[in-house]
């Protein structure tokens, strides 16, 4: 269990390092092509951070509203409240606010920019179809996302994707309007300038795709980490494994889900996603692999 947690953390760090290196390389090439130096990267970073600021601070309320989640009282669902409070104590964080989605499909997610402003959302279907140990496994998984600040990590990766997209768009526009040609003519770069232009064109086309692929890979690693960390909280990996099996067998789609919020859920709420979406473009690992890892703990 501890080995899986350490492995997922190290792989996340490696992916983040590759992500930052890709954006830095893109910024350097853009600077060479435009003559702006590193200022292009700085400008793109400022724009991306500004675009993500509102999302980071207000996305939890937006997500709760879009998902039609409502706060639940302790009198209405005392066991859910007690489970959230108990696992929060075990995790060493403030208790997140419990929310309910009135839907018979089985799913759950966590949201909030930090442990002090967090919420855990479960469907009524999940509450009615899971037993006590399975529900604890799901809540522990979501609690681990909050404790590990995965919402913050997702915001950082979104900023990096935004920077890569902006720089790529600027470079492609520069090629379109002939700005790079004028730059090469002015500097007399010759073959070196032509080589940089080719590299810039390839990066401008491929970098946004590569950035998204790295972002999805980080998301999958965080799911594995939340599984292992959640199992560590409950000391019973089979509880979450059994819950995932039940959720996987549930064929009912979640009506409140949409493409913008699907990555938040413990299992992709679109039941046909596994057949249509390539693993590389998926925010969730295959559920069979998640279950197998939990069974092996």
CATH superfamily caption of the domain at 60-150 and 219-295: Metalloproteases ("zincins"), catalytic domain
Q: Strands of the largest sheet, in order across it?
A: 1-2-4-3
Overall number of strands: 4
Count up the helices: 11
Strand content: 5-15%
Helix/strand order, N-terminal first: HHEHEEEHHHHHHHH
Determine the mean pLDDT.
81
CATH class of the domain at 60-150 and 219-295: Alpha Beta
N- to C-terminal separation?
6 Å
CATH architectural category of the domain at 60-150 and 219-295: 2-Layer Sandwich
CATH fold topology of the domain at 60-150 and 219-295: Zincin-like
Notes on the protein architecture:
By secondary structure, the protein is mainly alpha-helical. The chain has a domain at 60-150 and 219-295: Zincin-like (2-Layer Sandwich), CATH 3.30.2010. The protein has eleven helices and four strands. It has helices spanning 2-34, 39-66, 78-91, 124-129, 132-147, 150-177, 179-187, 190-234, 237-249, 273-276, 287-295, and strands at residues 69-71, 97-101, 108-111, 119-123. A four-stranded mixed β-sheet has the order 1-2-4-3, with helices on both faces. A hairpin with a 7-residue loop joins strand 3 and strand 4. Helix 8 (190-234) packs across helix 9 (237-249). It is elongated. The mean pLDDT is 81.
């Amino acid at each position: 269990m501890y080995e899986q947690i350490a492995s997922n953390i190290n792989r996340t760090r490696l992916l983040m390092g590759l992500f930052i290196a890709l954006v830095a390389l893109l910024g350097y090439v853009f600077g060479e092509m435009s003559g702006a130096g590193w200022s292009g990267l700085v400008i793109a970073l400022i724009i991306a951070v500004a675009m993500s600021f509102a999302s980071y601070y207000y996305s939890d309320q937006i997500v709760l509203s879009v998902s039609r989640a409502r706060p639940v009282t302790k009198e209405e669902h005392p066991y859910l409240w007690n489970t959230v409070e108990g696992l929060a104590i075990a995790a060493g964080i403030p208790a997140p606010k419990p929310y309910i989605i009135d839907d018979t499909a089985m799913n759950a997610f966590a949201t909030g920019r930090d442990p002090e402003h967090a919420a855990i959302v479960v469907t009524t279907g999940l509450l009615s179809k899971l037993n006590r140990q399975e529900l604890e496994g799901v809540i522990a998984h979501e609690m681990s996302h909050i404790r590990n600040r995965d919402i913050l990590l997702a915001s950082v990766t979104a900023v990096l994707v935004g920077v890569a997209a902006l720089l790529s768009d600027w470079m492609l526009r520069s090629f379109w309007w002939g700005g790079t040609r004028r730059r090469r003519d002015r500097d007399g770069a010759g073959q070196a300038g032509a080589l940089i232009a080719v590299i810039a064109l390839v990066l401008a086309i491929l970098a946004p795709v590569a950035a998204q692929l790295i972002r999805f890979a980080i998301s999958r690693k965080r799911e594995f980490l939340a599984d292992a960390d959640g199992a560590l909280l409950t000391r019973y990996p089979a509880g979450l494994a059994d819950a995932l099996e039940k959720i996987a067998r549930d064929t009912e789609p979640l009506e409140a889900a949409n493409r913008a919020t699907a990555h938040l859920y413990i299992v992709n709420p679109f039941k046909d996603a596994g057949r249509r979406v390539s693993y590389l473009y998926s925010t969730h690992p295959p559920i069979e692999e998640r279950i197998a890892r939990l069974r092996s703990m």
